[in-house]
Amino acid sequence: MELMLAISLGLLTAVGLWLLLRARTFDAILGLTLLSYAVNVFIFLMERVRIGVPPIIAKGTAPTLANYADPLPQALVLTAIVISFGMTALLLVIALRAQAETGCDHVDGAEEGDDGEPASSRRKDGG
Amino acid sequence: MAAELSHWIIVPVVLPLLAGGGLVLLERVRPAWVREVSLASVLLQLAVAVHLLAWADSGRVGAYLLGNWPAPFGIALALDRLGALMLLLTAAVALASVLYARGGDEARSPHFHALFQFQLMGLNGAFLTADLFNLFVFFEVLLIASYGLLLHGGGAGRLRASVHYVIFNLAGSALFLIAVAMLFGVTGTLNMADLALRVAQLGAEDAVLVRSAALLLLVVFCVKAALLPLYFWLPDAYGSATPPVAALFAIMTKVGVYAIARMYTLVFGDGGGVAAHVAWPWLPAFALGTLALAAVGALAARRMRTLAAYIVIASAGTLLLAVGLGTEAGVAAAVFYLVNSTLVAAALFLLVDRIAALRGSLRDRLRPAPLPQGGWASTGALYAVFAISAAGVPPLAGFLGKGFVLDAALAAPMTVAAWTVILVSSLGLLIALARAGTTLFWAGQDGAAPAAAAAHGAHRLALLWLLLLVIANAVFAGALAQFAQSTARQLAERRPYIDAVLGTKPVAPLRTPRQGVKK
């Protein structure tokens, strides 16, 4: 199980990074989302892989970490999910506005080979 | 002792939070009051910061248990000399920024003041927190506010800079979380004081994990501080932000410097066990590279704002070099230089806007133009003062700060490289600033000068406040140097911070809890 989780984490991170480096806003957002999935699972696993242990203390079981899951990583993951969700939403808005203003979805606001000045004349092609 | 500080320590976080939240509501009902409330909030924060600094200057460390949970379990805030100084510096720069914004920039798009207050909340929280995950949360608070502020005013240029800035910082946040999770996995704690104790006890089998976590964290903080391979977002972002925002951003790179100074003395410093001094082999080398490239960038800048942005990068390089020396003298030099470099960078961003407004269509491009009439001489004089302090020429405090850094570098293994790069890059900055000054203020062309818009009173007030601070920084340099020394000593001692955070007991409830209500 550890091996499977490790491989899937590695895959998620690799795909996320590759998309992030594609220099298109849509790809970058997808890449960041995958990367944050990987990070969230990673935080979750920092408490070691265990099955069938609750994070809430119940009567009749000794209150030691042998019988329970540490609730802290779960709280951290929750915070991380909320934050990355909010950030992704914001990034989407910025990316859409940038696309509307520059007429291109390259992260530099201009295609490679251009002089970097986003020509408003190109806006028509962008749809 | 703790009772004496009582709840003051949380005021710098709660006050801007309430002000920011209130301003969002107030914008609809009483739009005219917004700027006054925002200004009042910043003034109050300044007063509280002065009070906290006076308290911390006695050498005590204050801790505050949020939610009244005992320290390693709940989140704790802690106040020491370094934190108090950063709070005061933030409030001082914020005052200049909010004053300047009253001159018209605040109206360029909605919610400026609310975002401004949230940004202050994130900054103050990052300087106060004693919990690593809480530091991440405050980083996100200040970042998300800064995304909004960077976009303030709109336009394709700002959008383009924002896309880079946001994506870059989101990737940085992912790295931050990975580093935090690794540290938690190895030590089982996130409280910085507790982390310092646990990391020291780790055996050799965890050495690789904890060292890689420490270095990942260093990368994250260097993203914030704009160190060599990670600074390319900065000139664009700072160059396109509205002037009061850019001035406030001058303190943002210092958050990274602060976090490095805190974590790599407290947790990964002398007492760091297997992870001791993990950052010091890397930091000075990259800092020197940053400094060298910043000087090149400053010399190549074609606009005054780009030049100011490269001065921010150069100051980050100098600061991280000083911290990265890993000695008490180095940290002291960094603390001293930090004050001056932040104030000067903020002042330059505001002044550039005045210059651009007076020059008309050429804005801040470094090309000769007909000299404007009204207010040009005083603008030039201000530029001279700020440029002298930024380049590190006597008699202002920038010179002393660089002197302290050079002096601290004498005891380090890389003295020759450090001296060469600092001195040559200073020369480069000096040439860039002097050339920009002569182009802007002396190389006048014949022709009709544009009708100069009179400076707004708020603009004058903001620049005057920063001028006052820069000069006061030079006049009271002795006192500040002493303060920087004791700050560095406090950071090196570690023990007071750890004892204060872990030793603070939860407050007893005011009255006994009610008996269970029976239904």
Overview of this protein structure:
The complex is a heterodimer of chains A (127) and B (519). Chain A is mostly helical and 127 residues long. Chain A has one domain (2-124). Chain A contains three helices and no strands. The longest helix of chain A has 32 residues, at 71-102. Chain A is elongated. Chain B has one domain (2-503). Chain B contains 21 helices and two strands. Chain B has a two-stranded antiparallel ribbon with strand order 1-2. In chain B, α7 (156-187) runs antiparallel to α9 and α11 runs antiparallel to α15. The model of chain B has no long low-confidence stretch (mean pLDDT 90).
Global Rg of chain A: 21 Å
User: Total domains of chain B, how many?
Assistant: 1
Overall tally of domains of chain A: 1
Overall mean pLDDT of chain B: 90
Mean pLDDT of chain A: 83
User: What order do the SSEs of chain B take from the amino end to the carboxyl end, as H and E?
Assistant: HHHEEHHHHHHHHHHHHHHHHHH
What level of helicity do the residues of chain A show? 55-70%
Separation of the first and last Cα atoms of chain A = 48 Å
Placed side by side, the strands forming the largest sheet of chain B appear as 1-2
Give the total of beta strands of chain A. Answer: 0
Summarize the biggest pleated sheet of chain A.
Answer: none
Approximate strand percentage of chain B: under 5%
List low-confidence stretches of chain B.
none
Low-confidence stretches of chain A: 116-127
Number of helices of chain A: 3
Shape of chain A: elongated
Structural class of chain A, by secondary structure, is mainly alpha
Q: What is the number of helical segments of chain B per DSSP (H or I, 4+ residues)?
A: 21
- The count of strands of chain B amounts to 2
* Straight-line N-to-C gap of chain B: 43 Å
